[in-house]
Each structure stands twice: as C-alpha cells, then as structure tokens.
Amino acid sequence: MISTALTRISVGVVVERRKGRSAWAGFLWRPVSVLAGSPSAAPWTALDRQGDVTLFYAGEATIELHRTETTNYRDNLASGSPTLWVNLRPTGSEPPYELLAVTADPGEGEAFTDAGSNLVEAVPMPAGIAGIVERFVAEHHVERPFIKRQRDRQAPPR
User: Fold this and answer.
1) Which residues contact 127 (CB under 8 A, 6 or more apart)?
2) How far apart (Å, rounded) are the C-alpha atoms in residues 43 and 45?
3) Other C-beta atoms lying within 10 Å of the C-beta of residue 54
4) Whole-angstrom Cα distance, residue 99 to residue 59?
5) Collapsed DSSP state (helix, strand, coil) of residue 96
6) What is the pLDDT of residues 61-97, one digit of tens each?
7) Of 39, 40, 49, whose CA–CA distance to 17 is shortest?
8) What kind and span of H or E run contains 107?
C-alpha cells in the first residue's frame, strides 16, 4: 500500500498487564505510554514489575502525518492534553496482542474502535512528538472555509 504521509515518527509502545479481579479475565491489558524513537528492546520484553502489575515493551510503530489531517492534529494539540491512540489486535496466543498502529489523528483513533475486538487506548503524547506534530501543522496547515451545500428543492414527482 502506498502511503501519502509527509512525515513519519518512530515510536515504541508500552503496555500494562494487571492481574484481573474476575473469574473470566486472568489479566487485563492496556497501552499506557508511547516512547519517542526506536527502543533497542525486543518486542514483549518485560520492563518493570510491581506486585500484580507488569509493564511490557509491545513493539515499534510509526506515526504517519498527512497534510490533509492537519486540522485534526491542530485540534488535538489545542485540547490541552495532546493524545496518541494505540491500536492492538488480540492474537489468541503468546504474545497476547499485536501492535497495529499509533496515530495522532483523533478521527483515525476513533475509527480504530470500529473493529470491536481490538484494544484501543488513548495515551498522553510525549512533548517531543507534540513538537514534531506542531511543526508539521505550522508548515502544512491550510485553513479551508466551510461551504454548506445547497439542496435541490424540486417538487416530489406525482
């Protein structure tokens, strides 16, 4: 598939495994942070363990920035707490999840939830990544006026 991204940002994803409190879930998983750059650890390396909570490096992903989505990036940055969305797909084996994507686009992040079985979580955007996104928006954003379409007002056929 050909990508139209003008900027790509390599990131590493950290997920948390917490012991479940029900008979139906042995563990609960959730993305908790994104690291700027490409960590040297192998995917699914345990990073930290405290009681029933273990942090894992889930792997590397690439955030792609597209010129057509600058309004969404700008709104994300202006929210006061910029966010990245992490999309993990269950594997049914070990490791339990496959890292699919990370995005800075709130619209794309919401679209990730359409696949009901995927684990999608919003995590804080690191300052270094926010700076890259901010510079991208400053360079590529073009304000487009809203144009309301006019409906055809024809009489219904008889």
Assistant:
1) none
2) 6
3) 16
4) 7
5) coil
6) 999 999 999 999 999 999 999 999 999 999 988 899 9
7) 49
8) helix 106-112
